Amino acid sequence: MTTKTTATKRTPTRFGNRQQLQQILAFAGLVVIFGFFSFASPYFLDWANVKGILLATAVTGIMALGATFVIATGGIDLSVGTGMTLCSVMTGVFLANLGLPLVVGVLGGLAVGALIGLLNGLNVSYLRLPPFIATLAMMMVAQGLSLVISGTKPIYFSDVAGFDELAGGELIPGLPNAVLIFFAAAAIAGVVLSKTLTGRYALSIGSNEEATAISGVDVRRWKVVIYVVAGLFTGLAGVVMASRLNSAQPGLGLGYELEAIAAVVIGGTSLRGGKATILGTVIGALIMATLTNGLRIMSIPQEWQKVAVGIVIVLAVYADILRRGKEA
Amino acid sequence: MNVKTTNTRRRFAAAAAATTSVVMMLALAACGEGDGGGEPGGAGGEKPYVALVSKGFQHQFWQAVKQGADDAAAELDVEVTFEGPETETEVEKQLTMLQTALDKNPDAIGYAALDSEASIPMMTDAESRGIPVIAFDSGVESEVPVTTVSTDNLAASAEAAKHMAELVGSGKIAIIGHDQTSQTGQQRVEGFTQYIEENAPEIEIVDTQYAAGDQLKSADAAKAILQAHPDLKGIYGTNEGSAIGVVKAVQETGKSGKLTVIGFDSGKAQTDAIRDGLMAGAITQDPIKMGYETVKAAVAAINGEEVEPVIDSGFYWYDKTNIDDPEIAAVLYE
């Protein structure tokens, strides 16, 4: 990290302006993509399709919310994908196998997410493993445990009354609960990131870890807290995923972490840490889902869909770098 | 780095963290101990040893193959191990598994190739060591395997197309595929498309999208196709995950009953959908027979007996009317 950027970050007014600019740019990107597909296909701009896009955003979006906190500290969380799977499997164990009440099962799923985060945090903070390695290891452990615990078979919630309504029901008619949960989670994440110590310390650690420590913050302890917060979102994603499929699929999840990270990065959060917004992440996740949906509606083969998403990531991050260059 | 922290304190904290991590992981692992089982025993012992390298192990289908293999192993008194990569795209990882299996010097090898050509050097290696190879599920571009035990995927998907044509009559349909790079994945689409082109000119396949057999992604893909073609009359999903995704999409768009959905393989979600009428029917392979025949052929090869060059492990069409017939119920898995 250059001293220039650190200096910029300490200027409060510029900080605020840049955050706004970055969100406006990401939002503009979303509008452009949306506009393009609306012209390209007569079937794109339709509430049913928009609903489909929102629903497709929900699970990856919730994971991306958690990942934003970790990335804000300058870390990375590779365990969100298979961690989510482990959380859905454990929710299945609690609800379908042990027959616990719905609320307990859901909270249990979230608790498993928090536990995953706790282990990540302890490994990063106290064992001083690089976040990439700590969460890579957790990614593998979670995947393995999902398979072991489920006996490699999906766990079905067919006998758990009301579980599929969690994500599939519509409290607001026309809008699936999964989308509602995603927005609510985003609102909470937004508050936590900008208004609480957890969020401020996350950004501060990401900007300059040593300075944060010198100013008297127990960096190691707060990192653990931040990873636990991220884990809670992983748990929520797992519950939503399980509810939407009405089953816990132990084989899914690998690769979802990269989509979540891509969403975070497109949203303007810097992988170097210190700079993150929840709104950006939400927009990033929407961009990913919109792009895939639009290309599918136009019958573009899957191979090319991947190429397109890759190019968008490059463009998004490059735009961010250009802007930062100008400000310095 | 904070210099003031003493080394001992730091070391203590690290040790505490390490202990906590390990304890928690063990605790997590322990709660799953229940039905995890199935540890593959090593080679060793007097029994002939057959190493099976499959395309996967976490998918229900492969578990059924394993069950058939275990049945045959018990019946023919041989030792069988079963392993496979996590996803059906990990060609390289599977080759490593095959290499390790060869290095254990088994009496025979069963191999379900993810890539029909990548393993050719190892096939030659097996031949030079005198280890007979039985290909299962899909073939290998090599003369080495004594036989190939597989579902005739072209015929099976043509059967799916036949039922689609009967049920839909005319109009637009689409396909959600699971893998455009494997032979099985390609044939599942090819057999279907060919049948429609040759026998049902009234039907148009408007789109074929691939979603890696992932339920959520298949659902999203099917919804996009439904959006682009509101007058779509049927969708065919080429494996369990694809088919369940299609059902999900039909449910979520509120088109239940207006669309003919045809699937492949089984699994509880799919059989439930067929019972509930969300899905018209599906093709099931006979994974149990596939595993059984693979081990049986391996034992025959070990004993120097003649083996047919191709062993068809069969397939069935099943729908609401015959789903509980004993011969069908036996090959459907939960």
UniProtKB/TrEMBL annotation, chain A:
Domain of life the protein comes from: Bacteria
Keyword Transcription regulation: no
CDD domains: TM_PBP1_transp_AraH_like
Subcellular location: Cell membrane
InterPro entries: ABC_transp_permease
Signal peptide: none
Keyword line: Cell membrane, Membrane, Transmembrane, Transmembrane helix
Transmembrane regions listed in the UniProt entry: 21-40, 52-71, 78-96, 102-122, 129-151, 171-193, 224-242, 254-271, 278-298, 304-322
GO cellular component: plasma membrane
Topology relative to the membrane: Multi-pass membrane protein
Pfam families, sorted: BPD_transp_2
GO molecular function list: transmembrane transporter activity
Name listed for the protein in its UniProt record: Ribose ABC transporter permease
Record organism: Promicromonospora soli
Organism lineage: Bacteria, Bacillati, Actinomycetota, Actinomycetes, Micrococcales
UniProtKB/TrEMBL annotation, chain B:
Location within or outside the cell: Cell envelope
Keywords per UniProt: Signal
Transmembrane segments: none
UniProt-listed CDD domains: PBP1_ABC_sugar_binding-like
One GO location term (cellular component): cell envelope
Secretion signal span: 1-29
A molecular-function term among this protein's GO annotations: carbohydrate binding
UniProt main location, coarse: other
Domain of life, source organism: Bacteria
Annotated Periplasmic binding protein domain residues: 50-306
Sequence similarity: Belongs to the bacterial solute-binding protein 2 family.
Protein name according to UniProt: LacI family transcriptional regulator
